[in-house]
Backbone:
């Protein structure tokens, strides 16, 4: 597959939104992969965190259809270890928020049976709700 | 000495045994925790978006209430409450203009100046009581327990609010050693359990739980000890070996057993399979030879 990239030609709107919402400057990433190496969920991601950052920087298509930022649980391992001081968990949150604000909330709680709702601890339910609502 | 205590929702709803045991062991150590009035949910996860101020309102309301009640310090048992409150407190200190906005939004009701101190119970035990005093209070050393301390995320990260070295924490291990237990280590002790994904991505949690419990077993553990009620839920209910699951207990419960407090006062029903698996020898450590059940 060939993808055409037009660097420096036109605005990268998604990058601007991600940087505004996360407070992170994505140009600081030097693609070392420390985030991906330490991520407890990297096997479930369809794009590793460092690659996701690169896709956002280059304005590649299909970023908001990726699962990576939904799979991120915000454990902060990558943010804590990033040698460039990037808070990657905030970048993931920015991508979630862009999807939620543009596409609407999709709280997983609505799909649960009553018995499950009763069994799950409130912190699981509230955390899930917050990560899935804008 | 008495310290204000913020329980949080999950301690009251899903982990009352942790609270029961915590209050009992703190009393045994001569420290009183008094529950603060009018507390509300902390919001569970810190808001990571720069523009989502409304999500800081819940923890700020807790601080404002605390301040109105004349308290400066507040202690919590729940790792997620600890993390969310501590991070919101950082926002209050670093971005006072955000507190002004919250104050205005609340009709001047929520007035908070960032002066509260958020503490986790483990910090009180480590930094104020001290491991030596805890060791001195032990009546039934847990010699037969080989404990795998599981830290998870929210006690440790991000570093600026974490209470221990995020890569090589020792607080739970030191506490277990003070109780006379053998500490079993492993590199998955600080890896996320999958957290709230238990709601709709259970496979992620199951994979983390399987790896963590397999490591604990392989390294010789007969019990996992932890602090976070969500880690507890995931590790206790999502093991794939029903009937042969590794017991998962709160550190407060093991402290209570070592202090010689009755199991019922620690939320430990003495007839469960989990309980019988690892603890009978610990309960009677002074009366029973050490190479019995626990060392099979």
Residues:
């Amino acid at each position: 597959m060939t993808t055409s990239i037009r660097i420096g030609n036109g605005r990268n709107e998604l990058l601007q939104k991600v940087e505004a919402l996360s407070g992170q400057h994505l140009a600081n990433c030097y693609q070392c992969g420390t985030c991906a190496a330490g991520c407890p969920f990297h096997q479930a991601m369809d794009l590793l965190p460092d690659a996701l950052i690169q896709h956002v920087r280059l304005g590649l298509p299909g970023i908001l259809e990726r699962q990576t930022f939904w799979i991120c649980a915000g454990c902060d391992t990558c943010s804590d270890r990033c040698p460039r001081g990037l808070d990657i968990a905030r970048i993931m949150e920015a991508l979630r928020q862009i999807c939620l604000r543009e596409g609407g909330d999709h709280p997983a709680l609505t799909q649960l049976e009553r018995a499950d709702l009763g069994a799950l601890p409130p912190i699981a339910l509230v955390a899930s709700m917050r990560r899935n609502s804008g | 000495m008495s310290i204000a205590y913020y329980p949080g929702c999950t301690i009251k709803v899903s982990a009352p045994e942790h609270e029961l045991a915590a209050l009992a062991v703190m009393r045994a150590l001569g420290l009183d925790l008094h529950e603060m009035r009018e507390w509300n949910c902390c919001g569970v996860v810190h808001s990571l978006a720069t523009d989502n101020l409304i999500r800081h309102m819940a923890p700020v309301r807790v601080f404002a209430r605390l301040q109105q009640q004349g308290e400066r310090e507040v202690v919590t048992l729940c790792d997620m409450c600890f993390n969310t409150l501590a991070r919101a407190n950082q926002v209050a200190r670093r971005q006072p203009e955000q507190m002004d906005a919250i104050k205005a939004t609340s009709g001047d009701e929520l007035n908070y100046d960032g002066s509260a101190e958020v503490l986790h119970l483990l910090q009180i035990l480590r930094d104020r009581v001290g491991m030596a005093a805890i060791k001195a209070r032990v009546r039934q050393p847990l010699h037969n327990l080989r404990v795998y301390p599981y830290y998870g995320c929210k006690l440790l990260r991000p570093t600026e609010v974490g209470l221990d070295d995020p890569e090589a924490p020792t607080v739970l291990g030191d506490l277990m050693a003070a109780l006379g237990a053998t500490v079993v280590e492993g590199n998955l002790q600080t890896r996320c359990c999958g957290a709230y994904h238990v709601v709709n991505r259970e496979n992620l949690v199951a994979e983390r739980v399987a790896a963590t419990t397999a490591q604990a077993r392989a390294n010789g553990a007969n019990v996992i000890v932890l602090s976070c009620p969500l880690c507890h839920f995931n590790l206790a209910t999502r093991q794939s070996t029903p009937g042969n699951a590794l017991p998962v207990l709160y550190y407060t419960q093991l402290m209570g057993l070592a202090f010689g407090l009755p199991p019922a006062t620690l939320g430990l029903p003495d007839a469960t399979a989990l309980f019988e698996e690892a603890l009978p020898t610990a309960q009677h450590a002074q009366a029973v030879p050490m190479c019995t059940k626990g060392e099979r």
